[in-house]
Structure formats: structure tokens, C-alpha cells
Amino acid sequence: MPVDVLAEVLDNARLSDDYNVVSLAAPEIARLARPGQFVMVKPAAGLDPLLRRPFSVFEVLCAPDGTPRGITILNKRVGVGTSLLFAARPGDRLACLGPLGTPFDVVDPPTHAWLVAGGVGLAPFATLAAALTARGTPTTLFYGARRATDLHRIEIFEPLGVRTLVATEDGSRGDHGFISAPLARELDRLDRGADVRLYACGPTAMMRAVASLAARHDRRCDVSLEQTMGCGMGGCYSCVVRVRGDDGHAHFVRSCVAGPVFDARAILWDDLGGH
Questions:
Q1: Is the pLDDT of residue 152 over 80?
Q2: Which of 239-253 are b and which e, b meaning 16 or more Cβ less than 10 Å from the residue's Cβ?
Q3: Strands 59-62 and 163-168
Q4: For 228-235, which contacts have Cβ atoms below 8 Å and span 24 or more sequence positions?
Q5: For residue 234, how many other CB atoms are within 10 A of its CB?
Q6: 3-class SS at 68?
Q7: Backbone phi, psi, residue 31, to 5°
Q8: Are strands 19-25 and 3-14 parallel, antiparallel or unpaired?
Q9: Burial of 228 by CB count in 10 Å (0-12 exposed, 13-18 middle, 19+ buried)?
Q10: Does 262 score more than 70 pLDDT?
Q11: Which residue in 65, 58, 52 sits closest to 29, CA to CA?
Q12: 45, 62, 164, 238: which has the fewest C-beta neighbours closer than 10 Å?
């Protein structure tokens, strides 16, 4: 069951003019959180913003003895709520509800795990990479951004032994273009018998491209959707998505409770748009 806490801000690490990582003292949430789950955060008291905002659990913070003591969230300043979170100061207390949602299925070796992230879509993959490498699962991160300076916190994956491939739209680091290009190249190089599970999170157009590549190569792909959520617990129906059920018929589900992690084959991508 999720818990609702007033979490103290331990640190606010500014990564750029728009990106930051906020550390929150939330031991109960940290203890329960599984890779791919999220929290609903109210970045300030008062009515503006009225509703909480969803954020993936980025990292689980542990004491020296390994006891979970808090979480971090990766934030990009876009609107009122994210701007308030960008300005959070140590000692502030933020209402934080979680963990929420369906987590990732963490695969074991000999399966390989390929994580495909675009921008702040990196957020659910730090905990996933830690869980995979703890099991000995060979893990590769494909990380795309507009420019090299937007490839934030990529350094935390190196100590885990994660192989990393990057792409930038301006060509300032890695492949020049979208992250789907190196992904397509690596898929083409795979032996037919290789067992690879793909995971993707980022802009809808990127996830759609990854899902298409996975289907073309007959590989399972799980996506973490970044839908707008008003409550995070299925009460407001603001995050509905259209999926194809086991019976082959399309129906609507609430991504906050049925997801945010879905088998990419179930998503009716045309209904999500391309943003």
C-alpha cells in the first residue's frame, strides 16, 4: 500500500538551467519502491498548483548500513509545479504519496536488458539498472537528448557496469540524430537466438519508434508511459490510455493503476499522438 508523508528536502542538485535532482527523506517509500514505480508530489502548500505531480522514483537513498532512507526525483522545469520543485530548498517539506503504479518486470540472465531513454525518460531506469545488475543481468543503456549538455546523470550507470550508447540531435555527443538509430543498428547485429528485453521511457514518438523496432525484430518491449495524472490512484480518470486486451478488443485503462509500465504491443499508439 502507498504511504502519504511530508518528506523533507535533503538536497536540491541543479543539473542545468532547467533540470535538477531533488532528494527527499522518505524511508517508508524508499523501502517499498520497486523499479518503474512513481510518487505524486505537491511541490508547495496552497492551491497553485492544486494537484500533485507524478515523478518516477529516480534513485533510492540508503544509509551506510544499507537501510533505505529516502528517494530522489529527476525534474525538468516546465510549468508551475515543476518550477516550484526546481526552487525547493533543503528543509522544505513536500507532500509525497507513493510508491504507486505497476513496476517493471526485472529479467534474469541469460536475458539481456536494453534500456532506451529520452530526456527525463531516464528517471525510471536508475533503479531498474541497479536491480538488473544486482541479478547479474547484462544491461545496456541507450540514452538520447537534444544536446550533450542534456545527457544528465549518465555517470551513475558506469559503476553498475552498464554499457552506454548515446545519441544527440545536434551531434555534440554520440550518434547524430535520434536514439532509435543506434538501437536499430544494435538490433540488426543481434544473433537471432539472443534473448533481449527492451524497456523504454521518454517522448511518445520515441517510444513508438522503439516499439516498432522491437516488433520488427520480434523482441518484447515494456514502456513506461508519461501520461498526465491528477491523483495517481485511479480516481480522476485523467490518465486513461487505449490498449488492446487479451481478447483482441480495444478498451481504456487508467495508466496510473494499470501502468505506467505496459507491454508495448498492447498500446494503441495512434491514440497517444506523437509528442
A1: yes
A2: bbbebeeeeeeeeeb
A3: unpaired
A4: 229/40, 229/54, 229/255, 229/256, 230/51, 231/40, 231/51, 231/52, 231/256, 232/38, 232/39, 232/40, 232/52, 232/54, 232/97, 232/98, 232/100, 232/101, 232/256, 233/2, 233/97, 233/100, 233/257
A5: 17
A6: strand
A7: -70, -35
A8: antiparallel
A9: exposed
A10: yes
A11: 58
A12: 45
Cβ within 8 Å of residue 191, ≥6 positions away: none
Contact indicator for 143, 165 with CB cutoff of 8 Å: yes
Could you read off the pLDDT of 35-86 as tens digits, one per residue? 999 999 998 777 677 788 999 999 999 999 999 999 999 999 999 999 999 9
Residue with C-alpha cell 495524472? 229
Q: Residue 62 has which C-alpha cell?
A: 540508503
Q: Which residue has the cell 518516477?
A: 56
Q: Which fold has domain 3-100?
A: Elongation Factor Tu (Ef-tu); domain 3 (2.40.30)
Give CA–CA dist 140/125, Å, rounded: 11
pLDDT given at position 45: 72
Cell of 175: 550518434
Domain with CATH 3.40.50.80 in the chain: 112-226
- Nearest in space to 261 (alpha carbons), one of 237, 236, 241, 231: 241
- CATH architecture for residues 112-226: 3-Layer(aba) Sandwich (3.40)
Mean pLDDT for the stretch of residues 16-22:
96
Q: What is the mean pLDDT of the chain?
A: 94
Give the pLDDT confidence of 154-196 residue by residue, as tens digits.
999 999 999 999 999 999 999 999 999 999 999 999 988 899 9
Specify the pLDDT at position 273. 60
